[in-house]
Every structure is written in C-alpha cells, then in structure tokens.
Amino acid sequence: MPLINLPAFAGDLLADFERLKTLRVDTPVIQPAEPFLDMAGEDLRRRIFMTESETGDSLCLRPEFTIPVCLRHIETATGTPQRYAYLGEVFRQRREGSSEFYQAGIEDLGDTDTAGADARAIGDAMLVLSNRLGERRLKVTLGDQSVFEAVIAACGLPSGWQKRLIHAFGDQKLLQKLLGELADPKSPGVFGYEVERLAILGILDDEERLVAHLTETMEATGYSTNASRSPREIARRLKEKMELATTRLDKAALAVMREFLAFDLPLSEAPAALHAFAKKSKLKLDDALPLFDARVAALAKAGADSDLIRYRAAFGRPLDYYTGLVFEIEAEGAPAVLAGGGRFDRLLTLLGAREHIPAVGFSLWLDRIERAIAAAGALK
Amino acid sequence: MTITIALPSKGRMKDDASAIFERAGMKIVAVGNDRSYRGRVEGWDDVEVAFLSASEISREVGSGAVDFGVTGEDLVREGIADADARVEFAARLGFGHADVVVAVPEVWYDVDTMADLGDVAADFRARHGRRLAIATKYWRLTQQFFSGSHGIQLYRIVESLGATEGAPASGSADIIVDITSTGSTLKANHLKILLDGVILRSEACLVRARKAAHDGDPTIDRIISSVRSIL
Predict the structure, then answer these.
(1) Which residues form the ATP phosphoribosyltransferase catalytic domain (chain B) (predicted)?
(2) Which of A33, A125, A227, B58 has the smallest number of CB atoms closer than 10 Å to its CB?
(3) Does residue B156 sit at the A interface (CB-CB below 8 Å)?
(4) Which helix (H) or strand (E) holds B40?
(5) B167 to chain A: closest CA residue
C-alpha cells in the first residue's frame, strides 16, 4: 500500500492476520449510506460524511468496516465459515482526534462453534495488540448480553419490560432509570381517553373485538391497515402496556437485578460466581451459563492470559444486532480503548442474508495503538 | 459600525415585526419603493434593514452576516448547530406562536408518551423489516429530542418539505415531527400529539449574532432595550 500516513506497524499487523489464516479483504471507501443509518440509527448521520449520487442515492465515506465486509460477503455469496481481515481508512467525526483514521480487524462469519469463535476473537485481538505493545499489560473487559437477558427473563418480568431492559442494556443511565420506574409504584401508565371509553364498553378485554374496532377506525379515517402498524399489533401492544403499567418489581427481585449488574470480577472467577448467584437467587439460567462456561474454558484452552480479563455484567452495547459477547481492550495505564469487539449474530440477516450466519469480530483503533506505543517508548 | 437587522420579507411576520419596531420607536421604512429588499430605521442612521425569507434570516444571524434578525425560534434551533453559543435570543416578541411536536396516528391507542414510542421503535424492525419512519423537516430538533432527551436511536427520518401531516395516512412515514399552532390540521389528519411530545414552544424572536464587535456598542444595547421596553 503506497499511503505514507499508514502506521509504521501496519505491515507487521497484516502479517499477523495472515498467520491467523484470515482472508484479507478491501471494500470501497464510498459506500451506500442506508445500511449504516439503518443499523446504527439516525444519530450517526451527524458523524458520517454523506453525499449523493447523480441519481439521488445517499452515499457516505466508509465509517467502519463490519457492515461493508458483511455486505461484501452476502453479495459475493461466499460460503461459510469464513474469516476476513481488513486494514484501511475510515471516516467519522469524533470528539477527539482526526476524522479520518485507520482501523483494522477480523470478522469471523459462520462458525457455529460459538464459544470457540468467541474465544478466538478475544485471543486474536489480545495477540495482535501484545505483538505491538510488547510488555505493556493489557486490560480486557468482557460482557455478555445473553446472560443479562437470561437473568431478567428468570426474574419473571412480562415481555414488554424484558424488551425495554434489553434495549437499554449497555446504557447505564437509561437502565438505572428503568429499574427505578420498575421499583417505584407511584408512576402509573398513561392511557388516552379513547382507551378508557373502550374499557367501559368492555372491548379492551376481547382482542378480536378490539382488532375489529381498530380496523374499522383505521378504514374510516383513511389509514391503511398494513402500511404501518396493524390493528393486531396495536391491540397486543396495548395489552402489553397495561401489564407494563401494573408490573412492580418487588424489593427482593430488584435487589437480585442490582446485585447481578454490580458483578465486576476476574473472568476466571466469574463462572463460579454466576452459578452461586443463580443458586442463591433461585434463578434458572441454564440456557445462558453453559455457553459462558464454555467460552471461559475455550479461552483457557487457547492460552489467553485470563488474569488480564475481567467480566463486568453491566457492560454491553445498546445496538440491537449485538447478541452475546462484547469486549474491549485497553493498555494498562492508558484510558483509550484500543480494540472493541463482540458477537453480532443478527447483523447478516438484517443486511439481507438469506440464512442465519453467526458472526463475531473485533476492530483495532490504529491511531490510539500508535499513541500507546509512543507513550511506552517515552517511558523507557 | 453599521448594524444590520434582518426582517421577514413578506406576510404576517413582516407586518407584525414592523409593528413591534414602530412601537419601540424604530419606524422601518423601505429604501426606494415598497417592494425593495433594503430598508432603514427613521432617525437611526447607523442601522440598516435587510428583508429576507425567514429561513435565510436564521442562517444569516447564525453566520454573523447580519447583527440581528427576527425569525421563529424553531428555524434558529433547527438551522444552527449549538444555537445558544452562536446567537442570543434577545427578546421573545409574542407573535408567530407555534409548537414543534411529535404526533402519531390517533388510532395508536397504546402510544401516549415518548416511552411508548421508544418501545414501538425498538420492536419496529423485527416486525416490519424497516425502521420506524418519521416525516419531518426538522432533522436537528428531531435527533436532539429523540436521541438526546429520550434515548431513542432506532428510527429513520424521511424528509418532508410540505404537507407533512398527510405522511402517516399516505403511508410514506409512520409518525411526524411538525409545527402546529392550533392543532386543527393534526386533528383533521387524525393525528395526536404525545403528552410529553412538545419539542419546542416557538415564537418569533429578536435574535442577536454573538459577535465580539458588539461588546460595548451603545447601538446594540439601545436596540435591545427599545424592543424589550414595549413587550
């Protein structure tokens, strides 16, 4: 690559990727903007560099690699499993630092051995960082969305509340606010006048009559019953909302949830702690804990230094295509996140893949790694 | 230094703005004929007036090309990033009242608050294969309110430059963010405003560009105090 602003270690990093038996891919710098806005939400619009094609399609400069790599995989109909590696420039407005910078990473698509692939992603990220940073100790934080989901399901909350909490996972402020609402019996649900009228007429308790009433109203007011939310969807959500409004989490259950979210301990101690927690709190976590245990075992087998990894129960990303593992790596003594990764089993189908393709990966912030290397050099 | 005030070039806003300035002792007269886009203030030789369209006014005040402007707060907050740092709302003028609101179909009986809407938005993709679509011309205000104030990320904005209220019924969007003064157009289109869905209570304002050159300029203070004195 002829670019002169590449970090000096780029060649060595690519050699590492090759030794890890990945397939190096490149993707166009100019990408359709829709998939990014669709996956990450409108907020991204302010941070990416957008333009329009002659025919009016929204285009943007590549803000990251995961979505382009997955789209390329779907378009070229490559078989799975397949592990891709990339290194290139991305473009995004950040609070600090330049808006064009290099990222590199690995995306592992289609491996059905979830625990093994998770462990390999963490191990590979740790390996390539250690190779750059020498003796600097790494600090890995690991979270698991599926354990959180299992805990709130086991607490016996109605599905509407489960969805709210899952959606807030990774957003500390929102999650604490929701738990506060769950505990506080003062905040009632808000219902409109029309709902009260339907309740008096007895239509509210009968889903079929409610759906018929909604259909009639939509037709009479010129609203299509299938272009947006359907009568049945509204009827079911109304029922769910009534449950949301009347559900109160008792003090004990709330304490259980808070105890769980406070877990922050070395990964090697996490399996025993989680099993003890489940037993003590009488929660059935049989679906989530075996995978967690298997991942810890796979990490140990792969030789990753588990002393460097902490499990933090409240750590997650509030993006709806992340499904299980999330992790971040820092170098000890420097606050910057050098690598971030996780499992996104939902992303490929959201992007249009016909079949379910499990996926896990990570990306590296090359400018931060460069600074961490420079800082280490200055210390010596 | 000559101070430039940008005023609306036509319609009720133009008449109401002229009336306020006249009562404040700043009678505005057009330079040349009545349809000229330049004006002056009788007896104020160091002040000139530019007649511009309402959205141009917010842009020109935001960039500091003019010193003052009279325009709707909604246009200022939509048109200028970090508005309070770049302009000062020197006076609220008591006309041009309108609210920027989040409105959903009346028949969404289960949605009365932004929290309800958050639930619906979170689920939308799984049910409909697309994100919840919001028709609006207020990109910035919508993003700030949804993402910033209510933690709702998962929606898409469909730009709508006119007849926004019709978008949900026509199927081009699910809900809207739009301006309303009496609410009658919303009602006619079977839309309801969410209880906590008022993003901004807007009215016409005298807006000053924050410029270092204004510090200690007596004309600046005189204009602001004259307008404030009659409100």
Answers:
(1) 54-228
(2) A227
(3) yes
(4) strand B38-41
(5) A223
Distance from CA of A225 to the nearest CA of B (A): 10
* 3-state secondary structure string across A303-329: CCCHHHEEEECCCCCCCCCCCCEEEEE
A66 is in an annotated binding site: yes
A46 is in an annotated binding site: no
The domain limits of chain A are 10-137+332-379, 140-185+249-308, 193-246
CA distance A341 to B151: 23
- Does the beta carbon of B188 lie under 8 angstroms from any beta carbon of chain A? no
The pLDDT tens digits for B165-211 are 999 998 899 999 999 988 899 999 999 999 999 999 999 999 999 99
pTM (whole model) above 0.90: no
What is the Cα–Cα distance from A14 to B28, expressed in whole angstroms?
A: 70
- When CB atoms are compared, the residue of A46, A171, A194 closest to B109 is A194
Place of tokens 């280490």: A376
Q: Give the chain B residue nearest A349 (alpha carbons).
A: B129
Chain B, nearest residue to A320 by Cα: B122
Would you give the distance in Å from CA B6 to the centre of its chain?
A: 15
Domains and CATH numbers, chain B: 3-97+203-229 (3.40.190.10), 98-201 (3.40.190.10)
- Could you tell me the CATH superfamily of domain A10-137+332-379? Bira Bifunctional Protein; Domain 2 (3.30.930.10)
Instruction: Calculate the CA B118 to chain-centre distance.
Output: 25
Phi, psi of A51 (to 5 degrees): -150, 180
- Has A322 been labeled as part of a binding site? yes
Q: How far apart are CA B222 and CA B227, in angstroms?
A: 9
pLDDT tens track, chain A, 380 positions: 456 788 999 999 999 999 999 999 999 999 999 999 988 888 888 889 999 999 989 999 999 999 999 999 999 977 889 999 999 999 999 887 789 999 999 999 999 999 999 999 999 999 999 999 988 899 999 999 999 999 998 888 888 888 888 888 888 888 888 888 888 765 566 788 888 888 888 888 888 999 999 999 999 998 988 889 999 999 999 988 888 877 777 788 888 999 999 999 999 999 999 999 999 999 989 889 999 999 999 999 988 888 899 999 999 987 778 889 999 999 988 789 999 999 999 999 989 999 999 999 999 999 999 999 888 776 55
